């Protein structure tokens, strides 16, 4: 028997609900027990500072199945709930999602939908039984279903329109600010971006996603199913790339997208010059204090598969820290781990960290304190100090064990408030540098 102590994700339904409540005027209808929606929204509303959105929290429509429906079936109760949602909720798209128990009893949800759907109330179904995967898979299957069931197929393509995929609402706590910053960077080279889940998006943005020339997947594992579905049904090519953090990564990202879209490289480089100059004008202001006070640290990065390596790259390439460990906390299949390992080996590091896949919180600490001769050494200059942990709020204890500093960058993020904060791109790189140094001087 195996278990995960303090996991950093929820079930598949949790990821689906976090995504749906971030989409513009989309109404999720849960076919499940009363507690499913409430407990899951509590998890990501506070653990990822997502909040309840347009229709979340206590407002979530639910069939609220009980023991009776488990025995005799819950299809009739779902039918009544959908009709009630039509009457009460004001939305542009209704999405039925399922829970573990309704998947297990085998309710024919698609038959219910075919009976009650109306032209004025678009309605689709996403099978999200929690035991089928975790929250990241829940995100992927929702976006995939939009491309398959809702976004119209069109031959009309916009050569300068892209869709951004791979950042999961709440479970990537900075997703809103990160997506907005990446869209801003793309606009510098004349590219428009649909983000799906930022506050400015409308249902028309989603409907027009089929016109995109390219899907940009900002994760080695999340969003790829959706991108493949979009390629198969809408003929949209896709590229898998890293989340850019800092100037170097942002320039590399923008040039990569420009070349993929057939935009002149010289034009793109010229368009980015002022942004790079601006970035380093701010960094230069801090270099004296950083160098003179010796703020270089050994770093431990604890994050998901989307964000862990980009943060480590930033620490190594942008500010000259020594990323000693990168812990990836997702529950991944071996083929996905191998994809990440190969990508890790291809990335340029001046100081190459140890890459570890570990979902269990206590084992992350044990890995460092019990197995690492560097940490166990009695020689001052060989010890892992000064140390800095970049992880979730449950990794604060690890920073205390290492006698180091701490910054909450991953889910759950309960030790800070996150609105439109970003650590991506040029602006995010500056913000991250500020926060890393602030964490070290805030007690003075």
From TrEMBL:
InterPro entries: Nase/OxRdtase_comp1 (IPR000510), Nase_comp1_CS (IPR000318), NifE-like (IPR049939). GO terms for molecular function: nitrogenase activity. The keyword Metal-binding does not apply. Residues 11-438 form the Nitrogenase/oxidoreductase component domain. It comes from the Bacteria. Keywords: Nitrogen fixation. Belongs to the NifD/NifK/NifE/NifN family. This is NifK1 protein. The lineage of its organism: Bacteria, Bacillati, Bacillota, Clostridia, Eubacteriales.
